[in-house]
Structures are given as structure tokens and as C-alpha cells.
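User: Could you check the structure of this?
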Amino acid sequence: MRLLIVEDEPEIALVIEDVAIDAGFEITGIAGNMSEALELGAEADIAIIDVRLGDGITGPSIARALFSGFGLGVVYFTVNPGLIENPEGVTKPASPERIVDALSMAAKNARTHRVASLPTFH
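Assistant: Sure, the predicted C-alpha cells are below.
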């Protein structure tokens, strides 16, 4: 399964990359903003997306664009768990096991072609 990482903090992106590779995911790229995510979106099956990026574009906007443009499954990654109403959301900091569990669930949903709605944000 091919994974796009959308995270503007390089250290966190590299940790996610290492965890995902160890779990058998192929990394299609790391994007720090919406334009980079859209450039790389066609190559991925799922994406893990930081809810709040430094450029002011939020993860939900990117998730909607990736979902509508490429059909990507989405896992949100955030320090504010109150924003996520989705079993595939991950709260920072997260254990490698929690990251892999969420990615695996998104990958399973992508493989079975189930279309899940994107989570609601408060």
C-alpha cells in the first residue's frame, strides 16, 4: 500500500516514514503543504495528514482535495484529539503501534473499496 505523508514538521514526518516502512508501506512522498500534497496524491493509496499545518491550510482541506481528486483514504494526525471524530485519527505523540494500526485500517478500507466519510471537525 502506497502512503503519502502530509506533515510540515520534518522530524515527525521522518518518524512516520520509518514506522510506515517498517510496517511494509511504500512511501510515495512527504508533503508539507497543500500544493505538494496534490502533486504527490496521484501516486498514493492513503495519506496520513497533520490536521494543522504551518502554512494556514488545514489538514481537512487537504484531505477533501485528496479524497475527491484521487480517492485516497485518510488518517488524521493531531495534537488535539477533540478535533477528530474518526477511528483512523491518531493523536500526537503516538506509539508506532497506534500509527500502524490506523494506517492498516485505512489500507484495509482502501482495498475493500469502502468509501468512508471524512470526519467532522468541531
